[in-house]
Write a structure and sequence with these properties.
The chain is mostly helical. Helices cover 66% and strands 0% of the residues. The chain is elongated and about 45 Å long.
Length: 67
């Protein structure tokens, strides 16, 4: 079964969203108090992680069968 563009984008998008959420959680969790969270750092690190996840998905996504 060949991978379709739609299934690739869906799988890559879901993987990127999970990566963004994990990065945001880890970045927020590194602060001692919620008032000490640098929201700009959380946003920039999370967006960068999402972009990197999409770029890594170009190499292949195990969730999507390939021929």
């Amino acid at each position: 079964m060949l991978i379709t563009k739609k299934s690739w984008w869906k799988a890559a998008g879901l993987r990127a969203i999970r990566t963004v959420a994990q990065t945001a959680t880890a970045t927020i969790g590194s602060a001692v108090l919620l008032s000490e969270v640098s929201w700009l750092m959380v946003l920039s690190a999370s967006v960068l992680a999402g972009i990197l996840s999409l770029l890594m998905s170009i190499g292949g996504i195990p969730e999507v069968p390939q021929d």
